[in-house]
Specification:
Radius of gyration: 17 Å
Strand order of the largest sheet: 1-2
Structural class: alpha+beta
Distance between the termini: 40 Å
Length: about 70
């Protein structure tokens, strides 16, 4: 997961990224693993080569939504 999170962070040219996996366990529970990376983006020849050789991601787009809060009286 760490490698995919770093590759995603690099590909999107962002300064922080969180990767998460969810897999079903016995008894109706789920196993959740996550990894957080936060540091400035910089060019990396090794990651460039790896992404050109095997690109594991689909195209993405970003949309910004206004903030919201939860209120019990509405």
């Amino acid at each position: 997961m760490k490698n995919l999170t770093l590759a995603c962070k690099y590909d999107l040219k962002v300064s922080k990224c969180v990767g998460a996996t969810f897999s079903p366990d016995e008894g109706g529970w789920f196993s959740v693993e996550w990894w957080h990376s936060e540091h400035p983006w910089k060019y990396d020849e090794e990651i460039e080569r790896a992404l050109k050789r095997d690109y594991p991601f689909r195209e993405v787009s970003a949309t910004e939504f206004p903030r919201y809060d939860f209120r019990g009286d509405e």
